[in-house]
Amino acid sequence: MLNNKSSTINYNVGTSRCINGKSVVETEFNRDGHAIYGPYLPLSSGQYYAEFNIYPIDLNDLHDDEVVAIPDISIDGGAASISSEQITAKLLRTGKTRFTLNFTLEKKAVVEYRVWVPGKARLEIESYCPVAAAGSDPEKIRFPKITAHAPAIFQEQKLRLRQLYESGFSIEILQNSLILQRDGIRFWIDQSDDLHLIDEIFVERVYNFESDRPAVVVDVGMNLGLVSLQFAKNSSVKKVYSFEPFPSTYSRALRNIALNPDLSSKIIPANVGIGDIEGPLTINIVDNGDSGAQSTRDSGENGTPIELEMALASSLFNKIADENPECDLIAKIDCEGAEFGIFDVITRAELWSRISAVMVEWHHAIPGKSGEDLIAPLKKAGFLVFDRSPHTLVHNGNGFFYGVRKAPHAAA
């Protein structure tokens, strides 16, 4: 989908409502103006269409030919309307509620999707207008219909899914499950916990980076593979080495990677954990319900035993750096407490000079350990650290930081 934001609601014209998860404006009699406007997002040159959804509440005995709304598409800050349609009372009385406007952009432009109303009728207007390239299947950009045959997760999470839809995710029902797509990346949603991962990856884009140099990324804690796919989408990234020790999570990641054949050739996945030991490791784990959020640290006698294969972080990073001498090596590390052991062995092996940048989510998993135990060796190795960990983080929860190796000072 090409629109990842709802239009703005004009409160001088109507009232904001949330109906079955849909963000709508209910217009009032005798209030004219643009009921929705914006969201002022850029589009490249090309041919497109946008869909507007407008429903009658009270047409006030209007004549059939009375115009009650005019959806339009504009550029140049609203100064130039490039497509519009006059919606009459007759059209709404016949049951028509979806209106499609085709438009062409000769060059890249900031586009606005608006609906003007004269205040002659009370209407319900959806604030989100899906947009797609001309020729695209309209069903692919519409929110799926809620029926008794829809998957259980769709029924349970329809409000949350509608929020995601209105922020630019397309949603498809397939094989009694869901496939979501954002920014050209497709992935399965099999359980409610899968939705917890989405905002930071695709909306906040915490793992997005830009570089004019080639890079390889080491994804420690691949989880469901979504971040690896986002890295693979990055044109500066040549390879993504992705590691996930838990077989069930690893299988789900492979399933997501397979949905994206144009990106999968960049990803080198391995069902291996990275840490401060090498070889087989038997631990007890507890299923905490979070998608893929499991630690290679033993959870105690109450868990279920599982054997994992582990690789020594220092050996792994050395090998990848040797194989890609022309590339910057970037590490994304999110491994539920194992990050402390990883940092220890990299520091002891004096390997920070071979790593250009790190993105780390750390966890209160080891008593007495905090993010500072990870940041200190980076600073000593000449990294500039951007710490996003909340001030309130004391004894539980997660923290997050970036580290970038500083360039040497230029000679005076």
Automatic annotation (TrEMBL):
GO terms for biological process: methylation. Residues 219-383 form the Methyltransferase FkbM domain. It comes from the Bacteria. Pfam families: Methyltransf_21. One of its GO terms (molecular function) is methyltransferase activity. Keywords: Methyltransferase, Transferase. NCBIfam families: fkbM_fam (TIGR01444). This is FkbM family methyltransferase.
